[in-house]
Write the structure tokens for this entry.
Amino acid sequence: MKQLIYLTALALTLSLWSCGGSNDDVESPDDPNTPELPELPDNPDDPDNPDDPNKPDYPDLELSATEFSVDASGGENELGIYYNSSWTLTGTTDWCTASATRGKGPDTLTITVSPNTGAARTTTLTITAGTRTPTQTQTLTVTQANSPDLDIILYTMEDVKEFAKTGKKKIAGSLKIVRGGGTEITTLTHLNNQLEEIEGDLIIECGSLKNLDGLYGLKRIGGSLKLSHGSMPDLEGLNNLTAIGNDFVIEGSGRFALESLTSFQGLNKLSTIGGSFKISAEDNSLENFSSFEGLESLTSIGSDFVIEGSSSFFSPYHSLESLTSFRGLNKLSSIGGSFKIENSLYNLSSFDAMTSLKTISGDITINYCSKVYDFCIFKPLIGSSYQGTFVVSNCGYNPTKYQVLNGECSKQPEE
């Protein structure tokens, strides 16, 4: 009997030791009989989790730049994308590529532009963010200059006459009228109004040029119109120009530069400026420029509208000292970028002529306009949907954005 009890106890002990010490019965991840574990719930802090209480419904997508201008030799530019989730990029071409076309979270891309052997070219890259409706989009415009081999450069009257003999109606590159050796260019009448289109820029840097007669056939400039030196009182000769694809720049870059220019008469058919409209006056230049007359057909500016004057501590004269109003811009309705009036426009007294202005997409900065006391024209432009800043300083009256919105947008000049 004692022997039976002993054997039974020994068997029970061996059985317990076998269960606790052997690995044969431990569940293996490869064992097909191993039960599946339940899925864990989504991490509430995961940026792609729609149930994340800390994630905004539609986080803002931002880019480090909205446009790249690249010369004909090409090159690389970095583009920062700022977004907390997935995004895609479209619009690349055989000459403009990106280091990535999709990603998640903030990233820096390399935009590569190949050398250009032809006409100027432009593409728009679109970055789309979010997978739910509505998605957000931002665009980057990449513009590359034409090959220098396509440019026409006129230095002398002899050059003007020789180019006229070609009978060209279209220039695939840019037309540059500059001061050079030989007989200085005083007129373009020998061009016989044959030229109808310039794919690149029209650049005028010739102080002896008295007028633009000879360009009456020109209807479109695909690039920019840049005027920095000349003796013309207006822009008569460009009467049939309807569109400037990129920037319109008037730059008085030297002492008394463009001193004869008084207005934009001659541009009466110009309706759109695709890029920025900039007037920059240094060293007492543009001293007789008094109004925007001649731009009565202009309705839209694609990017910034900038006027920059200057003054000298040692001189009683100031650049743009004859500019008193915005007369001539009565049909301008939209500015796609910022509105900046800066530095010593001492005689500017009013913005009232811009009665059709409905949209300014960027910041509004007005500085050193000591005779301006009325900013009411900006009240409908800076309401609840306006995302830019509104800053007025060193003017006759310096209201804040909130004062303008509350009706305190003007003030009587102090006697």
Notes: The first strand starts at residue 62 and ends at 63. The radius of gyration is 34 Å.
